[in-house]
Amino acid sequence: MSDSQPPDPLARLGERLDRARSRQGSRPAGAPEQAGAQAAMGQGLRIGVELVVAVVVATGLGWGIDHWLGTRPWATIVFFFLGVGAGMVNVYRAVTGVRMAVGYRPAGRGESDRRPAKDERDNGEQRGDRA
User: What is the pLDDT of residue 27?
Assistant: First the structure.
């Protein structure tokens, strides 16, 4: 029998990781543009899916309500347009980067951005400056 032992699998894995990291450090020049294009494609896919899902779910709810109440086709039509509206709001929020419910302010705003209270507005109007 020979005294040689089989190679250590963890040592081989470490060598492979080192080689992969060295290759990753020397990326081709077009890699950042490709990453940006992939991010844009991902956002476009997300926007499309959100719009379609909102319309389909709302129309399905309208159809279900029509089927349950026997009011065909009124609930389907109303919910279709509600779904289109909800889909457009989702698209707007995705494009502008808003990550909260519609009507709420972002959490990072300072005191200078807040709306003054009613008594502060009244005092400002008496001094001549508007809020």
Answer: 61
Nearest to 58 by CA among 32, 85, 37, 31: 85
How far is the C-alpha of 54 from the C-alpha of 62, rounded, in Å? 12
Are 79 and 59 in contact by the 8 Å Cβ rule? The answer is yes
pLDDT in tens, 40-80: 899 899 999 999 999 999 999 999 999 999 998 999 999 99
Q: Give alpha helix (H) positions in 1-103.
A: 9-25, 31-69, 74-96
Q: CA dist 11 to 14, 18, 24, 54, 114, Å?
A: 5, 11, 20, 51, 59
